[in-house]
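hey so i finally got around to running the thing on that chain from the lab meeting. sorry it took forever, my laptop kept dying and i had to restart like 3 times. anyway pasting the input first so we r on the same page abt which one it is
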Amino acid sequence: MKSTFCLLFPILFLSIFNIQAQNKPNLKSEFEVPFEEYSLNNGLHVILHIDKSDPVVAVALTSHVGSAREIPGRTGFAHLFEHLLFLESENLGKGGLDKMSAKIGGEGANGSTSRDRTNYFQTVPNDALEKMIWAEADKLGFFINTVTEPVLSKEKQVVKNEKRQSYDNRPYGHNFAVINKNLYPTTHPYNWEVIGSLEDLQNATIEDVKSFYNKWYVPNNVTLTIAGDFDVKQAKIWIEKYFGEIKRGNEIPKVAKQEVVLSATKKYYYEDNFARLPQLTLAWPTVYEFHPDSYALEVLATYLSKGKKAPLYQVLVEDKKLTDKVSLYQYNSEIAGQYMLSVRAFENKDLNLVLNGIEEGFSRFEKEGISQQDLDRIKAKQETDFYTNLSSVLGKGFQLAQYTIYTGSPSFINQDIKNIQSVTIEDVMRVYQKYIKGKYFVASSFVPKNQTHLVLQNAILADIVEEKITADKEDSFDASVKASYPKTPSSFDRSQEPPYGENPTVKAPAVWKKQLSSGIQLYGIENNEVPLVQFQMQLKGALLLENKDKIGVSNLLADLMTKGTQNKTAQELENAIAILGATINVNATDEDIVISGTSLAKNFEKTIQLVDEIITQPRWDQTEFDLIKQSTLSQIKEQNADPNSIARNQFRKLVFGSESPFSNALMGTEQTVGTITIEDLKDFYNKNISPSVTNFQIVGAVPMKNVLAALDHLNKNWATKKVIIPSPVIPAKPTKSVVYFYDVPGAKQSAVRIGSVALKATDSEYHLANVLNYRLGGGGFASQLLQQLREEKGYTYGISSSFDGTANKALFSINSNVRTNITFEALQLIKTILENYGKNFNANDLEITQGYLIKSNARAFETLDAKLSMLNEICNYNYPNNYVQKQEIETKNTTVLDIKKLAEKYLDANQMIYLVVGDAATQLQKLEELGFGKPIVLNPKN
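ok and heres what got predicted. didnt touch it at all, straight out
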């Protein structure tokens, strides 16, 4: 066993305390990520990181194989294996990993595939570490024999459903395929998409699949990362025991860099069935991940496109009013990279004008360049982002594995930080001149149907293969067949699941509370794991206080609140936030306007000073309001063409009824937003924005006394007013089920929503309802809905159910996107599952549910987000500080009879709304066979 110790790798960042003083980089170490790395004799690379802040461990297995290791005609294999490796292994058995994950209280086994790597990961209570090492080793060395024809056939359908959902049935879903196919030559492994082609997937044989696996999924091409609270000596013993005897594979050749040079600019267009706005995307070939120039290119992308000072924003948004935002970013991978600039224009805008605006923005940058002040504010934000990425054990594990895959060693963290710090204003201009100015690019114009007059001049039709909708079913398979295969020999009995370790000690964080004289309610948790602070201020009311003819006012107000103050223009406010390395966002929900933020702990007080200004000194800038209103109208138009957005908005109307404010889309409609003026926003602000209906929740490295001091000025200067928030009417459940259909001609999937009103979060049975839901559709792969519709039938990529209650809202819903040609069969199966769920719920179901819900509490407080979520529940639902422990007791005491009674009460399949958004020509007629009468078409004009 070859071993190397890496003791401490400090993260060094520029610290900016006073930009006016133009501080030089402060190289003081503020944060450290200690790790140890070593290799087994079979080549398995191991990285261990200790973090004892919570009794959890994150385990990740990263294989250095992605779509770039495939060949034309056999694409999509790496992504296919991301799916297959969760299904079965020789010693865990069919569905064994998901069953174990539920039992041990894990967050759920998951994975992802990129061009260059595939990873499998999960965070679990630390008493399950040996179980996880056993399971991951079985995945690597004792899996491939379990892949049979039925297994492969079923998973092909799942991946096809994922492609339909993520690419084929959504606006602009084919854009990346057009760009990549034409940016990279056919001989380049980035020419095709990670998910591959449906044709290649359909043609894949067992022999093809096994050959791919045996070549790439071998110990000498895999990194095992373990991060969290565990005993290193014991972990090494387990790693050797379970992984040590897995055979080394053939030597894996290093992949040479294959950067691309275009010989001409290429322009393509496509009429998108789901798009309602024209979109222009430009892509330049640039550099691979961690290339020395990638750091300056990152700064350039931020400076050119993000914020009021960005040249592209100034020209395209403010001057020419062609769009509401500009996106520019690097998409860098192991052997090559690309620079992606995307602009979704307003309705009927000529994309040639957009291209002219881009060129004008570039010219402006060439003349003015980037200032040191702007460079420093961008670096300040990079510092905050870096800490945020390391705020969980899984985040730290991912980061260490990332360095290993792309650079060969996790110790590259040192050089990475130096490279970030060393970018100069000269570097930014240099990379612009080298990679962007006057260089050839690939352009795609995606426009709505019959609007080709908006595409770039000389663009040619893109070659996109679209799946045709047919009534024929996919290839049949029987997922219930138990596979018969030879067992891989081992030196010990691997079929025995390892025991639990010592029970983790779960300690809920201490919560402090305070009410200020103005009426603001404070809730806080001090936590010093990372030098960050996260907070949210909730101003109650929002949609509940809106005039029905002015729906969308609170959403527009939230957007306008960050567009300047009385003393600062929008650009000045933006710069003031950025220079602190902070973020301040304002958004509206159905029940609140929420001001949320993140800052370095050292800059918390200055960040709150800006929040104070935002609340008490609104600018009321008419120009900014006009931009926001136009942007909102464009977003509404987009939503009106997206099947999932349509399903969400129509379902609200059907479930809550016209008398409830929750029947309205938060953003409003084209009609209501069209009538809203800036005076309406002022009126809403003057009547409803008050400390008397405000709470403030904070988590991070700041004590209560500092929070009180930071909020003192706001407390004294924010005038209190009386605000009465009405309690919305909650309609009765439907007396009988009704099927509704919204026609989207040519839809490749049917968006399905099923549900009814149910429980508020404050109702006494709400927690038990979530216990009830775990095995139905709340437990991921431990749930019946996902097991039967995805794993057994291949009808969908995903399906879930949930009780979504708040202090005012009560909803139960089932959500999925199913293959178009089995829409009826999917709904029929969901109906059957609902009808039988309570009847068939048994002691084993209860044991699995209780095991997961109780043991998962070890993860309940790990991240700042998790702690903030805890404060949110205490604050808004009047839960006690120890509500997690109380719910645990309630879960333990739940009986099978309790669940059966709850199912009868809340899961009646004959008292629900059934909504389908899909292709009526092929799917509508058969839905009458569900037994709920003739479906009601919501948009008969289609």
